[in-house]
Specification:
single chain; alpha/beta; Rossmann fold; eight-stranded mixed sheet; four-stranded antiparallel sheet; 12 strands; globular
């Protein structure tokens, strides 16, 4: 993709434990352009969050990035010295966590935290930093932003705390935001409002956004493209409408069949059988073959990357081709 803000090439993030090596992310590649939203979806444990943490250099021992490249505006972040990464993180690259209390300090006012965030990266006056904090709170839909700067995190509802966390991520108008399931714990109405604001801000500010989620319904209304992860690898990727309307990989089909909105009223949901494999004992070849109704002997070997138009997948038994 020409002019991509973020290019991830063959990313490998492993955790070295006493029981063995956990290949949490094993050869992941994708790109995100300016103003584009990429939805990274999959079950819990598929490697979505570790992929996001790897991009921001937030993987703690015993985990580390052991291979691949993470190109942000052409600069490789893998192996970048910690002090150089700190200059980027928070200013040009930001992250929104699932739990806003991971972002907010409970003993400091919202204004203090936001002003300190601005001053940590830019040489501006405290007055200017406070004005930016106020304006950014208003941008994410918090009423009376000047007054709310004096409030503490416990004085906000869950939805408002998440808006504050999003505002902190937006303070420096970053070129890239990684959002790790930031609306999972919110009710549907608040979730819808925040998603609409995020979409508008991404478009208006030209930010590239990686939205990590297990909720296909959320991603369907937000992302331009979707990458489906399973057992540390991307098994299918392409434009949102193509992936959701004409899924190719059996795992993607299974995810869609387990969504209530995609099942006739009164019909039982079709859950994917079995459990995701242990990352310490992942099957050879296609990791999904132990749960797949279409698996054959050939699935014991590594499926090649195939594509048709803008959609790519790794599967010996693609469902669209099967139907054709």
């Amino acid at each position: 993709m020409s002019g991509s803000t973020l290019i991830v090439e063959n990313l490998q993030t492993h955790f070295f434990t006493e029981k063995g090596v956990v290949k949490a992310v094993d050869g992941v590649s994708f790109e995100v352009a300016r103003g584009e939203v990429l939805g990274l979806v999959g079950e819990s444990g598929s490697g979505k969050s570790i992929t996001g943490f790897s991009i921001l250099g937030l993987v703690d021992p015993p985990g580390r990035v052991v291979g691949g490249r993470i190109l942000f505006q052409g600069q490789d972040l893998v192996g970048l010295p910690a002090h150089e990464m700190r200059k980027l993180r928070g200013r040009r690259i930001a992250m929104i966590f699932q739990d806003p209390m991971m972002t907010l300090n409970p003993v400091l006012s919202i204004g203090t935290q936001m002003v300190e965030t601005v001053l940590a990266h830019e040489k501006v006056s405290a007055k200017e930093a406070r004005a930016r904090a106020r304006d950014t709170l208003g941008m994410v839909g918090i009423p009376s932003p000047e007054e709310r700067l004096a409030a503490y995190p416990h004085q906000f509802s869950g939805g408002m705390r998440q808006r504050v966390a999003i505002a902190i991520a937006l303070l420096h108008r970053p070129e890239l935001i990684v959002a790790d399931e930031p609306t999972t714990a919110l009710d549907v109405t608040i979730q819808s409002q925040i998603l609409a604001q995020i979409q508008t801000l991404s478009r208006e500010l030209g930010m590239a956004l990686v939205w990590i989620s297990h909720d296909l319904g959320v991603v369907a209304g937000l992302a331009h493209r979707i990458a489906v992860m399973y057992a540390g690898r991307i098994v299918e990727a392409g434009p949102t409408d193509d992936v959701l309307d004409r899924p190719v990989h059996p795992y993607t089909v299974g995810l869609l069949q387990s969504v209530a909105a995609n099942v006739p009223r009164g019909a039982p949901l079709k859950a994917i059988p079995g459990m995701a494999p242990s990352p310490l004992h992942r099957p050879s070849g296609c990791a999904f073959r132990t749960r797949c109704a279409f698996a054959t002997e050939v699935c014991g070997t590594e499926p090649p990357l195939e594509s048709a138009g803008p959609v790519a997948w790794r599967c010996f038994h693609p469902q669209v081709r099967r139907a054709a």
